[in-house]
Amino acid sequence: MACRIKFGLLRCSSSDTMRFVPTTTTTTSTTQPFKNPTPSPLLPPFKPNTQIPIKLSFSSSRWLRGRKMGFVTVNSHMATEDISVSDDRMLVFVPPHPLIKHWISVLRNEQTPCPIFKNAMAELGRLLIYEASRDWLPTVTGEIQSPMAIASVEFVDPREPVVIVPILRAGLALAEHASSILPATKIYHLGLSRDEETLLPTVYLNKLPDKFPEGSRVFVVDPMLATGGTIVAALNLLKERGIRNKQMRVISALAAPPALQKLSERFSGLHVYTGIIDPTVNEKGFIVPGLGDAGDRSYGT
Q1: CA–CA gap between residue 23 and residue 21 (Å, rounded)
Q2: Could you say which residues of the chain have pLDDT below 70?
């Protein structure tokens, strides 16, 4: 796949595109036996494998390296070659799935009616959250009785807190299917509005806890990463509550260079998952070509 993105200092082309999967498996063991929550619709009864510790597997894929920037753009296809990347680089993942491209196209169309726009936003969010969670969820292994025989199994570990933080209001549409994808999630709402003149964010609703549980994984859902003011304010609020950069993943429909650059300067090691990177932001702070005001188009107001 060839691409050329021109914004400031970042430039990608087929000549510097590398295919590989940097895979690091971090294995941690616990002295506490796994307590099977029974009954539970999230985790059916099974026999935990005490010989195999809980494992967290981290992998990514096809990479487009940004030059002289604080972040790297990643094209999220699975590949085979390993390479190491500095922990202080922010990674921006742009999954090349045709359904992601389809829903982006539906969102861009100014003729798309409100209900279809909102549904397209929800479907895009489902795909992006799936991509963002594929290498990040903690799992527990064991054995379970199938109708035919004993089978080795692997479940998402419900003991590890997974949190969704949609940034109102358009973030609600993008995060609509999050709870159907991620088991045992909690959703904390965060409302920020942007001043149309100064483009500075103001918090009008904050349902974040005073402190997040240790080891929480937080998906921050903000459809439009334009100037970066809103998402930076949201991530700062999370850091004030004990969340580190690598415990956060940002989900966005569209992103633009000013926001990505701002994030890379302030949040080293952060991962951002977006449907597409557009080239510029206009004087009013809107992404161009973009898709307009995601909140207005989602809710018709």
Answers
A1: 6
A2: 1-87, 184
